[in-house]
Each structure stands twice: as C-alpha cells, then as structure tokens.
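Retry 2 of 3 after timeout on previous attempt. Resubmitting structure tokens to design endpoint.
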C-alpha cells in the first residue's frame, strides 16, 4: 500500500492507494505555524481506515522550503566563491556574507591560480564570528575539478572530517554537472538557506512515523520536476523540494486527465492557482532551472506559473473597486473565518 501526502497552502491532503484503488482519503486544514501537526493529523485520519502494517511507501509534497523563502524565514549563509577571470562574481551576490576569493580553475579543469589560504581563513573567520553556521562553496568550473571547493570546505571544517567548524556546507559541484556559475551560486545559497528548517521538518516526520508505528515506511519527497527522491537525500539537497507543491498539481492533473493535445491546465487551490502548459500531452519543463525571485537556479522544474488567487483569497475594497488576493487571511467566513474570501 502506498501513501501520499500533499501539504498545501490551505489544506493538507492524504490518500492511501492499494491494488484495488483508493483505500482511504482525507483533507485537513494546514496549520502554517505547525506543518508537522497537519501531516500528523492527515496520517492519523488515514490510519483509522487502513492497516498500517501494509503501508510500504510514503510520498510527501511540502511547501515548507518555498514558504520560508517567500516569507523571509531563511537562515543566513556564508557564501565563498572562487571565480577567476571573466564574469564579476559580485553579480551573483545574494547575501551579506559573500566572499569572492582569489584563485581559479579554468574550463579544462586545470588550476590556473592557487587559492590564498590566508584570504580563505579570514573569510571563514569573518563568517563564524558573525554567527554563521551554514556555508555555500562554489567554484566556476568546479564540476570539472572540485579541488578548490574541497580546499575551502577543509578550511571551514578546520580540517576535521565531521566539520566541527560548521553545521552544513553546500558544495557547488555536488549540485549537478551542468556549467553555469551564477545559477550554481544561487542554487548553493538557497540550499543552505533552507537546510536547517527543512531538516528539522524531516526529523519531525521521521519521529512522527516512528510514533505511529510506521518506522518501516520508505519516505520519498516530491521534487520540482515531478520526480521523487529519498528523504535521506533530500536532507542534503532541500532546494530540490522547492516548488514541489505546483509539481504535485501537475502530477495530479496527469493522473486524472487524459491529455493528448496542447493544453493550458489550471489547478485552483485555496491559496494559489497553478497554471501548467502541456505540449502534445506532455508538461513543459524548465530545463535550465527555475527562478527563485529574480535569481536563476539549476533546479530543474515543471513549467508552472503560480498566482496568488485561490478559494481563500481575501476580498477587499480599494478606491471603490473590489480586489481579490493575493493575501490569505484565514479560512472563508462560511468555514469559521472572519474575512470575506473568494
């Protein structure tokens, strides 16, 4: 038996599926102050209708990382880059603690200029003294030779295998094999920015499963491109879970609709409306990577546009005109809320 949970902006949906089809399904309110409570509530509801011993896999979609970035609840990151000649690395500056180091690897993977160890140590010390515990390390051509990234990480970790100097270090060359220095820098930064928040959520999910006697269940997390990856791997690459909510919308549409033509598909939820484009029956994909705010990344994703209009979008009157959204101020009046909604 398979279990799926989608943590949306308004509702958390859960479904259990076996060989005969849908065995159980439920919908609970999403508590943005405690997303785990929403997941636990959905699980407990489903477990009231199915045999928990038969559940083998859980696929989870969450807006946690996306919401953290939108709401400005991310952690400060120390970004250390090794760029070399060419593009100005400060064009990719995303945070206060950004350090462009001398030293470079050329496009063939050959060291063109050595790193300055004193410069590295000064940058690392500056970050640590400012209370930074999460780092992103990116070299322009690190996918062809990660030597400089490894050396910088060694300085951050003070030479220790368990990295006592930092809680987590995102390495640019571990984000994929494609070249694109600005995109790689942004991806590494956002990966670090949501790392702690996401891992706390992952810890809580695993604890909840253990408490509910579901410790045997294999957990996968939905990625932005509609695929899944194991929870253990998602802990190191939480940036891949960004926009998994819209991806869940597209995957749901594919499961429910027989799409064979060029199509524009809308999924109207409580908080947002997700708009997807299909060509010849297949969803389009952002091959180069999505933009997070104004920053292009290497996160491959389904081509989806989300707009802030949904069933719970607040109604307001401004200069005699009725406006809808993008704010969501709680549930509809019909469901106990106090603000008129769409």
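Retry 2 succeeded. Sequence:
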């Amino acid at each position: 038996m398979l279990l799926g949970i989608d943590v949306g902006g308004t509702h958390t949906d859960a479904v259990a599926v076996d060989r005969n089809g849908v065995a159980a399904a439920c919908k609970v309110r999403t508590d943005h102050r405690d997303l785990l409570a929403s997941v636990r509530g959905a699980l407990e509801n489903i477990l009231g209708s199915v045999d928990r011993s038969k559940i083998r896999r859980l696929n989870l979609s969450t807006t946690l990382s996306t919401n953290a970035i939108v709401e400005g609840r991310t952690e400060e990151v120390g970004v250390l880059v090794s760029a070399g000649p060419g593009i100005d690395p400060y064009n990719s500056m995303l945070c206060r603690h950004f350090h462009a180091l001398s030293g470079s690897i050329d496009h063939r993977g050959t060291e063109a200029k050595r790193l300055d160890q004193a410069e590295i140590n000064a940058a690392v010390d500056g970050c640590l003294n400012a209370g930074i515990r999460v780092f992103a390390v990116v070299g322009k051509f690190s996918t062809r030779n990660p030597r400089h990234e490894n050396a910088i990480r060694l300085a951050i970790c003070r030479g220790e295998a368990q990295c006592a100097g930092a809680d987590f270090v995102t390495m640019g060359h571990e984000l994929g094999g494609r070249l694109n220095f600005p995109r790689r820098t942004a991806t590494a930064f956002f990966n670090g920015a949501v790392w702690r928040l996401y891992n706390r959520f992952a810890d809580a999910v695993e604890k909840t499963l253990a408490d509910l006697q579901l410790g045997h269940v294999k957990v996968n997390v939905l990625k932005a491109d509609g695929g899944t990856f194991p929870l253990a791997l998602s802990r190191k690459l939480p940036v891949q879970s960004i926009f998994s909510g819209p991806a869940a919308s597209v995957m749901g549409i594919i499961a429910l609709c027989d799409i064979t033509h060029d199509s524009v598909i809308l999924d109207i939820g409580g908080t947002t409306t997700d708009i997807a484009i299909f060509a010849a029956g297949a969803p389009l994909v952002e091959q180069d990577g999505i933009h997070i705010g104004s920053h292009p990344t290497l996160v491959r994703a389904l081509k989806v546009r989300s707009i802030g209009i949904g069933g719970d979008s607040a109604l307001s009157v401004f200069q005699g005109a009725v406006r809808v959204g993008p704010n969501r101020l709680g549930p509809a009046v019909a469901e106990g809320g106090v603000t008129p909604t769409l």
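Attempt log closed. The two ends are 37 Å apart (CA to CA).
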